[in-house]
Amino acid sequence: MNNYKKLITEYSKGKNISLFLKKSSNLSKEEITKISYDLQSGKTIKNFNQNKRKLVSKVMSPMVQEIKKFKNVKTILDFGAGELTNLSFLKKKLKNIKFYGNDISFNRLYLGKKFLNNEFKGKNDVSLVCNSHFKLPFKDNSFDIVTTMQALEPNGSMEKKLLKELYRVCKKAIVSCEPHYEIADQSQKKRMRLHGYVINLEKTIKKLGYKYKVVKQKYCLKKINPTSIFVITKNTRSNSKPELIDPATGEILTKKENFYLNKNTKRIYPVIDSIIYLNENFKLFLPRN
Description:
Blueprint: H1 2-12, H2 17-24, H3 29-40, H4 43-68, E1 75-79, H5 85-93, E2 98-103, H6 106-119, E3 127-131, E4 143-149, H7 159-169, E5 170-179, H8 186-194, H9 201-208, E6 211-216, E7 227-233, E8 254-255, E9 259-261, E10 268-272, E11 275-278
């Protein structure tokens, strides 16, 4: 608790928590990302409401156009959805689609849910899951489209692992707006390396043998962070519907009133304020009998 209070103090001073933890701790990249996001909770919504709505619209409109090129899209997972500002834009522009959002930070999803309720005047049917980025709790081919909006960004060196998971759970395509190292100038590249951003995204897509195209971006959320849209196509004929699986075992979970149950292991995962908490480190079990 004292260490967390120290982090709050450092963050209030304007310190970059990710860089601070990389230098002063032995935490994993995922743990550092989660703590950083938790501390920043609320900042995205605040910026969005103050001055970012128009910019987000300009940045994400090309993503919407790419999604519309795919026929019969019924489900979309917004990976690393954060405070759901980007998901809210997609939901307003793409009708008759069931949206799902996941993030590593419960804090951000919790605030994002309240934001969505305000945006859609209580008519919010988005399903939200808090889970590890690297082990998605969904069956293969669960979603027609998977989107990311600078959610892969802080996971430099983990490109292959993340892309394989996103590809596993999508049916038609991954549509990602992410940093594009190859088009950055030298100062931008230096900054991307310093912050541990993804710098091998396009190279990794090629190595994995995925069919893809790059859509150039006229607008970016930050000029110092050039991005492109990467459209990776899969086009499986699977008729699978989104189903939650136990991240620890891969077995299908059964929905109960306020938790999800693995009938074989009796492990349960709670539903907190309509947000499903699916982390394999959560170890609570029902009695065997």
